[in-house]
TrEMBL record, chains A, B, C, D:
GO terms for molecular function: nucleoside triphosphate diphosphatase activity. It comes from the Bacteria. It comes from Lentzea fradiae. It holds the Pfam family MazG-like. This is NTP pyrophosphatase, house-cleaning of non-canonical NTPs. GO terms for biological process: nucleoside triphosphate catabolic process.
Length: 114, 114, 114, 114
């Protein structure tokens, strides 16, 4: 079973699919989970953040929060009928146009954007 | 090529991987993109949000923002060495324990949590 | 003592001002606290959210999280040398131009924006 | 007129107060605006972020986004009947207990928290 179907089954088995998993609620849940992920990194120096996964407790929490974000993102896309992987590759193609390699112009405001 | 590798190649080809895609920056970028997704839904009624994908322009924007969120989530997990799908299934198993089906207790504070 | 000065003194007394309260860290902390506020509202129906303050425990948590958001917003503005109230009134003036009252055009995409 | 009243009048004059400014919508709007603020800082180095206000265009955008965040935070507190300044000072008092000065224990996980 893929992740989308596993999460859909999980929600349906608990009667959450219709009651709680509306698009607005899922956007909020996604946002709250990104907040929890942010909380793990906010006071770290750039170097500490780079080495975050060497601290077993922090690494466990990072994995846990990344999973939560992935869950709500997957659920939201599912409820909206969007294929996340397809949409992601389509966006990469658009970004190839927006940010050609070998571009010699100064780094744009949108530097680092994907 | 899978999404993780495609995004990694995209970043490396533009010299963004080392310069911009640090863990803290990617957490912020993820958070900013979730903000753009939130912006699309914030003033919609629950019903309008439910039908968001029937409006072609809104649907296009929703797909675009979901892709952006997926990109930064994938990049962040990649930089931290976390397998997103594996972490997601591991979390589902933990959630099966936390929220057993057939539970007759009153709906907990954490209702709707995954 | 006003709020800005009280928070500045609080941070300095704990040696947090220079060590942790950098602009990027404070933006992340602000974002994480908005995530905690979002968490309180995400599964509520619109009606439940409207009556949130009638539930003493929820009301206490809402007040607590609003304060946290206000703290980091105030600290961030302070570190950047921005007068929050002055900037807020200046933005109201710009919004008066962007969204004239008595405008008979259809509600714009940016409806509800301030 | 204070900021809360100015924003309330602005929303009422446009019929936004009842139609759009519900608690859930305002939480989402607050979150989206923090996302726009995050967007301004995400790719900056810590040093660039520290000097953000020396770049006139960036400084203008930072002021603009800080104002937007302040607007929605003020509106949300107003709709919920919370006095932001009072709640903020009450939280400082609680934080004085949680994080005593002169504490010689190792820096806690919650370091930098207010």
């Amino acid at each position: 079973m893929d992740l989308r179907d596993a999460l859909r089954a999980f929600a349906k088995a608990r009667d959450w699919d219709d009651r709680y998993h509306t698009p607005k609620n899922l956007v909020m849940a996604l946002s709250a989970e990104v907040g929890e992920l942010t909380d793990l990194f906010q006071w770290l120096t750039p170097e500490e953040a780079q080495n975050a996964m060497q601290d077993p407790e922090l690494a466990w929490n990072v994995r846990d929060e990344l999973a939560d974000v992935m869950h709500y993102l997957t659920r939201l896309a599912d409820k909206l009928g969007v294929d996340l992987v397809e949409a992601s590759f389509a966006k990469i193609e658009r970004n190839e146009q927006r940010f050609p390699t070998g571009d010699l112009r100064p780094v744009p405001v949108e530097k680092g954007e994907m």
